[in-house]
Amino acid sequence: MDEEHRQRVGLARRLGRGLEATRRVVVNAVFYAVVVVAVVALASGGKPKVPASSALVIAPKGTIVEQLQGNALDRLQAELLGVGSAETLLKDMVDALDMAREDRRIKAVVLDLSELESAGMTKLEDLKIALGRLRSAGKPVIAAADRYNQYGYYLAAHADEVWLNPQGMVLIEGFSRFARFYREGLDRLGVEWHIFRVGEYKSAVEPFLRSNMSSEAKEANLSYLTDLWNSYLRDVAAARRTTPEKLQDYVDNFPAHMQAAQGDAAKAALAAGLVDRVEPRDVLRARLVELAGEDSKKHSFNQIAMGDYLEAKGGDRFGKKAKGNLVAVVVAKGGISDGSRPPGQIGGDSTAALIRQARHTRGVKAIVLRVDSPGGSGFASEVIRRELEVTRADGKVVVASFGSVAASGGYWISMAADEVWASPNTITGSIGIFAMFPNVAKAMGKHLGIYVDGVGTTRMAGALRLDRPLDPEVGRTVQALIDNGYRDFLRVVSEGRSMAPEEVDKVARGRVWSGARAHQLGLVDHLGSLDDAIQAAAARAGLGEKYAVRYIERELKFKERLVRDLLSRASAMAGTEAATSAAASPLLALARVMARDEAELQALAARHGVLAYALVPVE
Prior knowledge:
- This protein has 24 helices and 23 strands.
- The longest helix has about 40 residues.
- The strands form six sheets. Strands 13, 16, 17, 18, 19, 21, 22 and 23 form an eight-stranded mixed β-sheet that branches.
- It is globular and about 85 Å long.
- The chain folds into three domains: about 90 residues; about 220 residues, Alpha-Beta Complex (2-enoyl-CoA Hydratase, Chain A, domain 1), CATH 3.90.226; about 220 residues, 2-enoyl-CoA Hydratase, Chain A, domain 1, CATH 3.90.226.
- With about 625 residues, it is of the alpha/beta class.
- Strand 16, helix 15 and strand 17 form a beta-alpha-beta unit.
């Protein structure tokens, strides 16, 4: 090891220790700030109460997800420090809608969709069904927003009344897949990006190979995007009692619609029949007072937020206390990585541990793996698949249920299931693998006049350095590994789907399919929701109607439980803003400063090249 390398390693270690120490101080500062906040709020009241006449307000923020990212402490830290993206749990929304259906105190449901950023089509479909159940029980649904994007509008279309602010608009763009392509820029810099893949449709590597999208990628992408878009048009048109053609016209000829409305986007939406009322907030508030009654103290309508309502209703929504015959649900959401990962990500070890926990839980007769993942590490995927295979060998039923995405590694992990369920709008397939890494030897010589030279005891010594040209023999070896990995993928799918490897290869090659097409091709067994998959698992296990559902999740540590419980109580009783008292604000300010300093240290580490050896996982 040369002196320069030792210095770099020493710097990396010192920076790593500094970052870890800073992180701990930040987390502890936030934790104690939360305790202060929660205690202040707890002193002011008790459990949330549902007014005798009230409107349930459901206001999703950010992205609707199958599982929230990180643990309770991570999410709280991100929220208080103003970092990260907001998320709303799909199950919370569905459960709240179903509870409101039978609750006489809930006179109406308000969908406040102004802050909804995105949601997969399968999640929108689940909410559409839940809204249908609610409306069939005679509960009116009022959708309102200052502006609608196409995800929020999908939900709004399934309401009884769609309200839009006069300053707002309905912006429906359609579905697309665009990417940045770096080939020419890399060539100018002299950076060689080595790609090893199988499958002409494995387009994730194309930005490093080309300056535009290949015809194969365009064909595959347009195929599944068209399937999803046609489904969107059909659902919205049916809900709004119009035709898909009229909706398509609104999108394709949006400039003309705007000109006809003299630039007034709200009027254009009203003229196109997309909304029912274009009114300011005070008029909307008066309408909700008619439905739910008036809160004279707050000069608004009687209301309860979704989070407060779920806490007020209580109950064992995740089946933690359920007994008897059980169907266990394990959620596999996010990218797949080796080792252990927090909720919202899939770790080969951590997800396998959850499956193992489910297998050994008393009363569990069947396991449903809920997959919402674009893939990741091939090794971690096989660890999870093998755990499911062992589960089946142990006599448990295993059913895979696909959410918005179950592609590549997300498809691989499902191949040990007795049955595979998908939504027609699931994005799945992508049976193919790749590996890639850059080489900067030419760039260093060309732009910096820096060269690498030395000796090694074997041909492989130093062969994978990013600052040395890649030995062609080593490159062929890596490609051989990728070829073998693809054959393993074909074998796994062939055995799991009872198809010949040649049949799998025809629909593989890295190509992505919609759930509907995947069903036609034999890549999935049935089309349906998570509930359908759970019922199928119970039936296959011979449980009849006498079973309960339990979600298997990582046990929270004491600090995480404390944060979760105290914060939920504080929010319910006093509201997050009201609970942030003067006593807590100095701690929060300190935490924000520390988070800023930590970000600066991370940037410093990046400038010194400490992160240069990060590996790109196989998708």
